Amino acid sequence: MSAGTMKETSRTLSTRNSGGRYMSTSGVWEEQINASTWPKSPNGIKPSKSDPALAPPFSPATGPSMRIKGQMAQGQSTFQTRTNRHSVSSGTNGNAITSSQSRIVRMPSTQSQNEGKMGTMKMENKSMMNIPDLTLKEAVEFLSSSEESYQQWGATFIQHTTYTDESAKSEVFQLGGIPTLVTLLRSGNPQVCQVAAGALRNLAFKNQNNKLEVQRCGGIAKALQLLKETDSTETQKQITGLLWNLSSANELKQELTATALPALTQHVVVPYTSLSDTGPSSYIDPSVFNCATGCLRNLSSGKDGQRQTMRSCPGLIDSLMSYMKSCVAEENPDDSSLENCACILHNLSYKLEQESSGSFSNYNPSRDAQPEKSPTIGCFSPKSSKAQKTFSFDTVDASPPSGVKWLSHPNAIDTYLSLLESSENKATLEACCGALQNLTATKGNASDAVSQILVSKSRDLSQFGPLLKPSNPKLQNTALSLLGNMSRTSSVQGTMAKQILPQLGELLEGGPSKFGNSDESIAAACNTVVRLMSANSDTSKKVITNAVIQSLTDLSENKKFTKGSNAASLLLYSIWQDKNLQSAMKKIGLTKSAFINNNITQVVSRLEGL
């Protein structure tokens, strides 16, 4: 069997606001992944969609005599099947056959902006043995036959036809084939169950009407019951692929969260991540895990209550984190299931402190933490007169994490940093970076603690350099937002300034094109420089050159970038207000007029009034 690729949308949640919060949602996948970028708003969720791949129809048992399509080539081995009540095993001349599943490509963090690829599996001619030359009307009629062989013929024909012909999906819907296929999921013949699931999987792929019809007929409940009963890997692939496709429909997420979430966690995710030598019954195929996590990825981009339900699902977060850590240990950072896991955890970290008050209970300010005050350097100075508490690492709870506490634990941060350094999968990179952005989004002890841990664990912040490259604007935007969040923590500003300011200066010197012409990215870079430049005057003097000032001046006058022009104006104003930097600017021949003019004064006055 060969895997084809088809695309639908997948979603990841990311949120950004003026306070530096970024929420990434990964969630809606079908057999293929597609992520669309939604307008960003404070605490907004970005949907991304993806559906799993369509599976190839399973070759039916010998049926009634009729004209055949796709006859086997001479010398091709015969296909044999053996069945019991809840299992189907297949072989060619006695050798086990494992069908492949197409890979999933993450949408941005899925990352919600990319299309993932989870292809639908199609049958090659050599695999399409004994498929009768039917019309779809005849195939649908076969589904209601009292003969199981006819039921299998009909479902197999529908599965194949809907893979190759998009219009066939609507025709089967009009002919009323979906209710009968749903009924066949409870057939006493495991092969009939399998091909019915495969047909429904293809019918639901990128077809909203068919998704809703499957649900209306009770298809979700029947599919989950079959998943719990079967020990056939092929049937498990079809069912989890069907659930993945269904999960891209927002209308179905509530039911799927209530029913499919616990079932997939208990019967696929937990067993797969805790494999043992207990026998064949514990075996879960990697492609089944991939489809299951694709479904959960879509669900994680749902409403707040659904996200909270996922956080409290027993064993889910522990298993996802366990799989991610195993991929890091095995040096397999570009695995497609790892991508799904990262996107789920990215979404579950969105609004984490707000929605799960106990999730940051590991972080407590030390008893001897003293508020430290800095002289006011200006209204927008990074060292404002607001008191800041010093966080002590000694207060981090070192006990093994479980459940929701995994999301903000230092061990999770370690895993994210390892993947940022080793992975080449854009979706995985965006998800890991987005999760860290979410964890540093609020203003308080928790975000300060995570920022300090990030700087401590990342040593020279080398992981962040490649993320700032303009070749991936979405990842760059997320990384800039994360660095902006971290730069609010006074205790790390000195280290960040030394490592990050040179890179930000290079980007600003290059102008809007270095930021993919992203207004938000330009603003994030300027605001971060404002916070960091006073923390290390020596580095700032080297970074802020004539070329950088000229670029900032151009940006401040470019009203195409509303946020960016305001941030550039504020940065110019702040540079001149810093006495050390003002002196350095004068030495390179710049005067006050380069930093303070009518336009900049108006912008600063307006911002002060907010």
From TrEMBL:
Sequence segments annotated as region (Disordered): 1-23, 35-68
A Gene Ontology cellular-component term: plasma membrane
The ARM repeat ranges on this chain: 176-218
InterPro entries noted in UniProt: ARM-like (IPR011989), ARM-type_fold (IPR016024), Armadillo (IPR000225), Plakophilin/d_Catenin (IPR028435)
Keywords: Cell adhesion, Cell junction, Repeat
GO biological process, one term: cell-cell adhesion
Compartments, as annotated in UniProt: Cell junction
A Pfam family: Arm
Polar residues bias locations: 11-23
Family affiliation: Belongs to the beta-catenin family.
Protein name: Plakophilin 1
Organism: Oreochromis niloticus (Nile tilapia)
Lineage: Eukaryota, Metazoa, Chordata, Craniata, Vertebrata
